[in-house]
## 1
Amino acid sequence: MSALIIDGRAVAASVREEVKARVGELTALGARPGLGVVLCGDDAASATYVRLKGQVAEELGIRVDERRPPADSSTEAIREIVLAMDEDDGIDGILVQLPLPAQIDPDAVMAAVRPDKDADGLHPLNFGLLAQGAPAPVVSCTPAGCMELLRRSGVPTRGSRAVVIGRSAIVGRPMAMLLVNADCTVTMCHSRTADLPAVCRTADILVAAIGRPGMITADYVKPGACVIDVGTSSVDGKLRGDVDRASVEPVAGWLTPVPGGVGPMTIAMLMHNTVSLCAARRGSGQPPTRP
Ligand code: NAP
């Protein structure tokens, strides 16, 4: 057996097409979606991500309002930019690119983002709704993208056993909540989990969000399982996932590659969130929908 390789680039392209159509509808109603972006500091990777996000937004017809405050800005100065975006009716989603410079308190900045403009889906209110099993208007982009990959690849979730490795607020925790809400029986693992390979081998769906390149080998994988590789690490200038593809591909039923798996979905879901927030707050009057 050899795993079916899930083409994240193709799935992300279809999500973007759907988002573009919704942008067109909203713009025709006089509510062109807008994304506010705050990039502070000299982190080269952050600058690349912001450029990519801006490019995709503009391709889809989303207006981008980008602010680049100086790297020595204070927490209060960044909060003021965010608070002004909160009040700006033309901005539907706010993205504060992390990490922020060391002197800035990221929690204080993120707390300034209105929950109904929370493009990244990281606000405690939106996370709380997800944890309650209520329909959350927006969900953290990377886990939301993983769910779309499962859904559009026909991977069954109801009654399936899922194991998520990683418990961060951005990926692991919301991923586990989404899988529970999709009727999986979920185990969340982390660096203190005992006998991790044995726990992982119980999984019909295994999500690796660790940041340790190549750690997940065939020993961790139940034959036929769906393996979602969220990890991205730079090794000798190349992007590597948490999964050792050569070892896992012959065993798994489905596998997301790195690059070209989860990564492209994250930006597509950011655009989806922005448009859903626009529709919910000032657009068609329809509730946000899945892409
Ligand atoms: P993080 O905050 O560093 O969390 C990593 C998690 O992995 C932690 O919960 C940690 O456990 C766990 N872990 C570390 N070593 C482990 C081990 N040996 N065995 C079991 N668990 C272990 O990272 P993150 O922000 O969630 O990101 C995870 C990975 O996904 C990174 O590679 C990141 O670059 C990538 N990522 C990719 C995208 C994308 O768009 N493709 C988006 C976001 C993140 P403890 O909690 O016990 O420390």
## 2
Amino acid sequence: MLDIHQFSYGNDNYGVLLHCRNSGETAMVDAGDAEAGEQALARTGWSLSQIWITHHHGDHTAGLIALKAAHNAQVIGPATGKSQVTGLDQQVGDGEHFTFASREVRVLTTPGHTLDMTNFYLPSEKLVFTGDTLFAMGCGRLFEGDAPMMWASLNKLMALPDDTTIYCSHEYTAANATFALSVDPKNQMLVDRAQQVTALRAAGEPTVPTIMSLERATNPFLRANDPGIRSHLNMPDDTDAAVFAEIRRRKDNF
Ligand code: ZN
Ligand code: FE
């Protein structure tokens, strides 16, 4: 078992520290804020060995150079993209893997939000870091890719087991829940989850991580084949990809 410490920074970002007690190794997922990263390391007492970068946006990379220099950490991140991340020691592509604390970390590229989006899956821990691709009840905005690309990326994540724990990079869940209810209003699990999210946020608690089974049941962006959503959108015979694109379009204008 790895120890996990999630910390917030910026408006609504989450960073994560992963730590192995046996080897003493620690990985940080994303490096958007060096000061917040340092505080998390100080709080836990863990010393940083690796940094995993999901994509090139500043809220995921702005602290990379400082954290790398301060801790001599190995930085692993996207192999391709139109804006290359500066400071990577190792570039990884889809289907490749690397090792952290004697565990396999599988790389899943999930383009759509950006072309370089890179997700990290640890099968032994049933743990995935989805960056700005899959959020709790949401998915990333399409800045560089298009809807078919994002749909293919989400399908890659949906192939992971139901009991996979999902860490995403933003606390967008309350707004996502409000939108989800607008396209899937009769989904009782969604109605219940939206209430839980409201209570958690009112108490200042995070709604992340989430779990794949819960996303399958309540995240409209994973439910393009759901009869209720299809009938609500009046798209009974369209492809899943077309239904997904319509849900994404509605969210952009919500
Ligand atoms: Zn982003
Ligand atoms: Fe982001």
## 3
Amino acid sequence: MARDENDDVLPDQDAAKEFYAKYEPKEVLGRGISSTVRRCVEKETGREYAAKIIDLSNEDTNTQTVRESTLSEVHILRLVAGHPYIIELHDVFESNTFIFLVFELCRNGELFDYLTNVVTLSEKKTRYIMKQLFEALDYVHSKSIVHRDLKPENILLDDNFNIKLTDFGFAKVLQPEEKLFEVCGTPGYLAPELLKAAMYEDAPGYCQSVDVWACGVIMYTLLVGCPPFWHRKQMVMLRNIMEGKYSFSSPEWDGITGKYTPKDLIRKLLVVDASERVTVKEALRHEFFEVVHCGIKVFDARKSFRFAILCVRCAVRIQRLKNTPEPLSLSSAVVDPYRIKAFRKVVDNCAFRVYGHWVKKGDCQNRAALFENVPKTELKNLYVSNLNRL
Ligand code: ADP
Ligand code: MG
């Protein structure tokens, strides 16, 4: 932390100074209710980051609430640090009026914008993204944390289009068996039990399963481009959520195969009764994800190299085949030495040395006669009878 307890005179400027001394802020990458996210460059290393600048002096917001929620976000970011699919917090500067959170930079922006560009994602890409999201969430839930604001805007894409789960502003650490009642999140992604907790006094509250519901909404949206519960009138939408009223309507869903059952997984995620809903671990075991390894070709350098060597050796062998000496068989050498290439050469050489003067220039028939190698019948019989006697 860049804050100094004794620095009450101009603490905000000092925090800003420390940030500006270390980083060069660049263009705006995104905005939230009380934050602006800018690309920035670390002066010493030239490395790029994303700085979330939270303005605590904003008149529309309660400074203390924003500060507390930002510090809680920092606390949770540190608890979930070190996972490949969760955003990494690099640096923090805090003052009376500003907090700077410096994150690793996700150059490919939000999954939301990506989806807007491509309209819908293939089943293969959906599988790739959802698997990473469930893995990130499994890690979050294993730390007894609930995210509470899962949506494509809070899923960023890095250089390799791998996801980075971000925005832990609503996240909360739960005590064992603890239930929550507070309403927070984004309307289209809210789980039925969360809405009921806000509406009914005797509602049992909610916990991590609200994130699983949001995953169902995200997966549905990725596949067909539109969310399952959207309605022009928000009240109708919220009622549909509480009743679990959605459909795999035509024509958007016509092209989605039943092969790896994405619909089946969505049905298990969008279950109104939270106790009947699958957990993240169960979702990861769903057959929709079983094809990940055979569906997406994993490049194995060693395997490819071995295969290339095998191909080259095979080609060389085939090429050399005509030059390769035949294996010498003693029995055929006794019966028919002329069949063996090496002997044939010797025989031909001898024949030419003896009878070469017969070969007339320009008479190929004559020359061919010299290669005549069918033995005379009596001679052949003599060979065979001699062999039998051996
Ligand atoms: P808020 O809590 O205000 O919603 P977020 O943490 O979600 O703030 O950030 C707001 C937006 O800023 C994101 O939706 C995204 O567009 C952009 N953004 C945030 N962090 C990064 C990052 N690390 N790399 C690139 N863009 C980011
Ligand atoms: Mg956000």
